[in-house]
Amino acid sequence: MTGPTVSRGVRRPRPLLCLLGFLALGLGACDQGPATNTRFMHPSGARDFLVAATRNQGPLHLEARGAAFPGVATAELPLVPVIEKAVQSRILRLTQAAATAEDPRFRLLLLFNAPSLTEVLALCRGAPDGGPARSDGRVELLAAFCNGEQLVSAVHGWVEEAESPQGKRFEQLIRQTARDLFRDRRRDE
């Protein structure tokens, strides 16, 4: 009886390399984010709705609820400049005053640390308040782009150990969420 043969040029994996590969895969599970997940997208995508909402370069209404950081009001978060820069496919201006929005039917809704993420399709009909800031540094974000009571797109995101509102990790979460929220589904697929 002969043993297994090994063809020339085929190397057996070295045990150290296998261990390093295993550790690399295992450490990926300890990721601290930011990470986003598109929970809903209109079949045609969100870009056409964004164009309709801001056709005259007017601002889109931004409504933020909840607390991302202890002792920091939502109005103090650098949301407007980060989101405006993140959406590169169109010049985007935001306003937190509904009365100054170009088309009041459209709005961008951000819920920080919302208690429940299950009623995504109902977000535009009656959005819940966000929740209090978490003491462990985790920031949960549920973002929705609304056309009246119709949900156009929704993205859930999170980041661990967000150091501050001006920190890189928090900014990455906001930027990544905005890009996912306003993408053009036809071009992305």
- Uncertain ranges: 1-29
Rounded average pLDDT? 82
Return Rg in Å. 22 Å
The shape, in one word, is globular
State the total count of DSSP E strands. Answer: 6
Helices, by number, come to: 5
Give the quaternary arrangement of the chains.
Answer: single chain
Structure, briefly:
The chain is of the alpha/beta class.
Kindly describe this structure.
The protein has a six-stranded mixed beta sheet. It has helices spanning 15-28, 47-53, 79-86, 168-181, 185-188, and strands spanning 35-41, 60-65, 94-95, 106-112, 139-147, 150-159. With 189 residues, it is an alpha/beta fold.
Annotate the secondary structure layout.
Layout: H1 15-28, E1 35-41, H2 47-53, E2 60-65, H3 79-86, E3 94-95, E4 106-112, E5 139-147, E6 150-159, H4 168-181, H5 185-188
Parallel strand pairs: 2-3, 2-4
Antiparallel strand pairs: 1-6, 4-5, 5-6
Helix pairs in contact: 3-4
Name its key features.
disordered N terminus, 22% strand, single chain, six-stranded mixed beta sheet, alpha/beta, 189 residues, globular
